[in-house]
Design brief:
Blueprint: H1 9-21, H2 28-34, E1 37-39, E2 46-47, E3 53-55, H3 73-81, E4 86-91, E5 94-98, E6 105-109, E7 114-117, H4 123-137, E8 142-146, H5 164-168, E9 173-176, H6 179-189, H7 191-201, E10 234-236, E11 242-245, E12 248-254, E13 264-268, E14 273-275, H8 298-312, E15 318-320, E16 327-328, H9 330-356, H10 361-367, H11 372-375, H12 387-399, H13 414-424, H14 428-440, H15 444-457, H16 462-478, H17 482-496, H18 511-514, H19 518-526, H20 531-534, E17 539-545, E18 551-557, E19 560-565, E20 574-577, H21 579-587, H22 592-597, E21 602-604, H23 608-616
Parallel strand pairs: 7-8, 8-9, 9-10, 14-15, 17-20
Antiparallel strand pairs: 1-4, 2-3, 4-5, 5-6, 6-7, 11-12, 12-13, 13-14, 15-16, 17-18, 18-19, 20-21
Helix pairs in contact: 6-7, 6-19, 8-9, 9-12, 10-12, 13-15, 14-15, 14-16, 15-16, 16-17
């Protein structure tokens, strides 16, 4: 099939309408982005040990050109602001490396070294950022790490700033209470589905260019290096809790259920600097993230921003966050906080007002619009979250997925519904003829809705896939949201170039599995247990981890996997192995027979219960289909 196409006349008209409606351009954002620049590395290019780039801004050089008609002009502006990279001084003693990854890494100068906040997604960019900091501010050790919250772009690169020796010595890693549980829940238990959907959301598979990936809204893109999950050594569970690390005083504010289930803001009195984690950023954030996650509590989110104002605003001279650029001056910081606070509460309150009038999520999403005072700001625009899907998220949080119409209570699955819709339309040719007419009128949402039925009824129909791709592509070109653009364009790309089927699962990276505490590792196996395979069988054995000394009673009954720490099943065999060896067995890097022969696994009694368990555990195919059955 053909590659990306040009913008249609309808798309060009839509872009012109957006351009005419944008807030006034003052140049303040560009000034803030450039402020405090110290230095960078060429194109921010970071290589891994094999010499392959895991991050580079070089492919985004096209952003120096004028906005093309294949990109929403508002998103183009955000993309250019997110293209500036390097080390920046926020205020003396506080420094950020920006656009070495999707998120920022922040360095606080202590008495003897650097306190690191949010070590990016992967180790290689984090290490490059630390090297840049050391080059310009001195070759000092890392004296502590803070994870602001439980999303991977804020902890995954930990091994780029801490060595295994540092970790073994217990160097302080501070996180909000509940961090590990939520990191496991979001990134391991549902990790395969979330990570695959993230390839859509962040444009990972798209070419960089005016017809491909230009920006994620939240940042430029995601890095492709080594990801690890190292548990914190200390949890913060109370607002007002204080710590001093390497001479740096920190006052914490816990903000559970906001942008992440476990998150915290904090204030540095000696620098008069407020870190808002990812609770405030230079756009409308996601109340529901399209990659998949728990719906966030917009009411709590707004409340905690308000609490930040009460706690810290009077003493704040600079506000910075885990994405985007800072705000300098108390007045500007407070105005930003107030409008971010009201942004989320407005969406919350108005969604429920309309729901109480009987509107459904789809109807609410079509009606939702910001008031003039909020719409006038660039930092309330939907570069990441959108009013449309955030309104649906608020509805879902309170009322669930069901809109109340019994016709939607037990709908047919996509393939069966597709066949019936195609038949109702008079067959594939008739449906396609109507869809092409709608495409020519610029009705791309309708085209995508009706042709999707034909694609799921007959994915081998190349003409249907091509037209569906064309419709998604134009919607992608028009999207202001980076994730919406990426979803549309990735869907179009996979329709035009379907991924070949694989006889065996193409598994994702296991880096986070390997770093899990024993109990969390066993918890992650529960969602791999194939219930129909286990059926009515019951097994039990004792499991001892050689690397931690922990012991568990492990059993399967009623097709459910159970584990109980520090308990023993009398008369059951005992299997001993390391956590890493268990991961290797689960993902198929080795067999139980080979592990026993090598002495990596030992058994007192029969190893058959473990063998059965392993045979019942699914291996997930990372590359499952999304836009086709």
């Amino acid at each position: 099939m053909s590659g990306p196409k040009d913008a249609t006349e309808a798309t060009r008209a839509a872009q012109a309408a957006v351009l005419a409606s944008l807030p006034a351009e003052t140049g303040q954002d560009a000034e803030d982005v450039a402020r405090g620049f110290i230095g960078t590395i060429p194109d921010a290019t970071v290589l891994n040990a094999e010499g392959r780039p895991v991050w580079s801004m070089q492919p985004f050089g096209f952003l120096a050109e004028a906005c093309p008609d294949t990109v929403n002009p508002s998103l183009w502006r955000q993309a250019r602001l997110n293209a500036a990279h390097g080390l920046y001084e926020v205020t003396p003693g506080v420094y950020q490396v920006r656009n070495f990854d999707l998120s920022n890494i922040t360095f606080i100068e202590g008495d003897t070294g650097y306190l690191v906040i949010d070590p990016l997604i992967s180790a290689e960019p984090a290490a490059a950022a630390l090297a840049l900091m050391r080059k310009h501010r001195g070759d000092k050790p890392v004296t502590g790490v803070i994870y602001t919250h439980s999303h991977v772009d804020h902890y995954g690169g930990i091994k780029g700033v801490l060595s295994d020796e540092d970790i073994a010595k217990g160097l302080q890693i501070i996180a909000p209470e509940g961090f590990l549980e939520e990191a496991v829940s979001e990134n391991v238990v549902a990790g395969n589905a979330m990570a695959r959907r993230a390839t859509y959301m962040y444009g990972s598979l798209l070419p960089r260019g005016p017809k491909g990936h230009v920006d994620a809204g939240l940042g430029k893109a995601v890095s492709l290096g080594q990801v690890s999950l190292v548990p914190p050594t200390r949890s913060i569970g109370r607002t007002g809790e204080r710590m001093t690390i390497d001479g740096v005083e920190i006052i914490f504010q816990v903000t559970p259920g906001t942008e992440a289930p476990a998150e915290m803001n904090f204030f540095f009195p000696q620098f008069k600097a407020l870190c808002m984690a990812e609770n405030c950023s230079c756009h409308l954030h996601n109340i529901y993230t399209p990659r998949g996650a728990q719906v966030r509590d917009a009411r709590a989110w707004s409340h905690y921003i308000g609490e930040s104002i009460d706690l810290f605003a009077a003493d704040t001279e600079v506000l910075f966050a885990s994405h985007h650029w800072p705000r300098w001056g108390q007045g500007r910081a407070v105005d930003f906080l107030r409008k971010q606070r009201d942004l989320y509460k407005y969406i919350h309150d108005q969604t429920l007002r309309l729901a109480n009038h009987g509107l459904t999520p789809l109807e609410i999403a079509e009606e939702m619009a910001l008031p003039p005072t909020l719409a006038a700001e660039w930092y309330t625009r939907g570069y990441y979250g959108t009013l449309s899907h955030n309104a649906k998220a608020v509805y879902q949080r309170y009322l669930g997925w069901f809109d109340g119409n019994p016709a939607n209570l037990h709908r047919l699955p996509p393939e069966e519904a597709g066949r019936r819709y195609v038949d109702l339309a008079g067959g594939p040719d008739a449906l396609m003829a109507k869809a092409r007419e709608a495409f020519d009128r610029g009705e791309y949402r309708w085209v995508a809705e009706i042709v999707n039925h034909l694609v799921f009824a007959d994915p081998a129909n190349a003409d249907a896939r091509a037209l569906q791709a064309d419709a998604l592509e134009q919607m992608g070109y028009q999207a202001e949201s980076g994730p919406w653009r990426a979803f549309y364009l990735t869907g179009a790309q996979e329709l035009r170039n379907p991924m070949p089927a694989s006889p065996t699962p193409r598994q994702g990276a296991a880096g986070q599995l390997r770093g899990l505490p024993a109990e969390r590792l066993l918890e992650s196996l529960s969602v791999r247990l194939n219930g129909p395979k286990a059926g009515a069988e019951a097994i039990g054995f004792n499991l001892a981890f050689s690397d931690t000394g922990e012991r568990f009673a492990v059993s399967v009954e009623n097709a459910v996997l159970h584990h109980a720490q520090a308990k023993t099943l009398p008369g059951a065999p005992t299997v001993t192995l390391s956590r890493n060896e268990l991961v290797r067995l689960v993902i198929g890097e080795t067999s139980l027979e080979a592990s026993l022969a090598a002495g990596e696994t030992t058994a007192e009694g029969s190893a058959e219960p473990l063998e059965k368990l392993l045979s019942w555990l699914d291996r997930f195919d990372f590359w499952f289909q999304i836009v086709m059955p």
